């Protein structure tokens, strides 16, 4: 079911940021990249979206709004919306991107994200919402997040191009 909302270029991307490969050495000290803090060993120590999803920090949308908080995922208004209705659905536990999900378990996560996104869009009376993921390195935060967008409410041509 999620294949219909999967960004068309996502399946074809295997690019690593800044010339890195999966075997590139990690920095010797903790570092933060794209909203996620990593230890020197590369383990995730904190994530912006996980902190919002768990309620540790409020979302920065305008106005800030947490639309859903469940045991495995949350949804909130985008901080920089490209449409009059732009919501992010995130997992509560850290998953870097949709590319890190595999097998039946990964499909369950994606299906649950799509179901939640469609449900929230229906409650907001958004017909035929656009659902999609950005693929690294074209993502803004290294934590899986699905965009739920009203295609009739784009606020600029940039939003239409980006999503």
Architecture blueprint of SSEs:
Elements: E1 31-33, E2 36-38, E3 44-47, H1 48-54, E4 66-69, E5 73-77, E6 86-91, H2 103-123, E7 130-132, E8 145-149, H3 157-162
Antiparallel strand pairs: 1-2, 2-3, 4-5, 5-6, 6-8, 7-8
How would you characterize the overall build of this protein?
With 163 residues, this protein is α+β, with helices and mostly antiparallel strands. It is built from three helices and eight strands. The strands form two sheets. It has a five-stranded antiparallel β-sheet, sandwiched between helices. A three-stranded antiparallel β-sheet has the order 1-2-3. The protein is globular and about 45 Å long.
Describe the structure in brief.
With about 160 residues, the chain is of the alpha+beta class. Helix content is about 20%, strand content about 20%.
Question: β content, as a range?
Answer: 15-25%
Please provide the count of β strands.
8
User: Approximately how much helix is present in the residues?
Assistant: 10-25%
Quaternary arrangement of the chains shown?
single chain
The largest sheet is: 5 strands, antiparallel
| Strands in their spatial order, largest beta sheet | 4-5-6-8-7
Order of helices and strands: EEEHEEEHEEH
Q: How many H/I helical runs?
A: 3
**Shape, principal axes of CA atoms:** globular
The average pLDDT score comes to 77
Structural class: alpha+beta
């Amino acid at each position: 079911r999620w294949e219909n909302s999967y960004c068309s270029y996502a399946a074809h991307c295997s690019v690593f940021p800044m010339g890195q490969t999966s075997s590139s050495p990690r920095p010797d000290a903790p570092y933060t990249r794209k909203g996620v803090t990593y230890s020197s060993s590369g383990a995730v120590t904190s994530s912006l979206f996980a902190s919002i999803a768990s309620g540790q920090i409020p979302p920065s949308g305008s106005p800030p709004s947490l639309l859903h908080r469940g045991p495995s995922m949350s949804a909130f208004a985008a901080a920089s919306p490209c449409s009059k209705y732009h919501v992010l659905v995130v997992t509560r536990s850290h998953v870097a991107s949709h590319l890190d999900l595999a097998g039946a378990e990964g499909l369950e996560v994606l299906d649950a994200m799509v179901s939640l996104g469609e449900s929230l869009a229906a409650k907001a009376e958004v017909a035929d919402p656009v659902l999609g993921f950005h693929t690294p390195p074209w993502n803004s935060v290294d934590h899986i997040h699905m965009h739920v967008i009203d295609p009739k409410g784009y606020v600029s041509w940039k939003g239409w191009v980006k999503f």
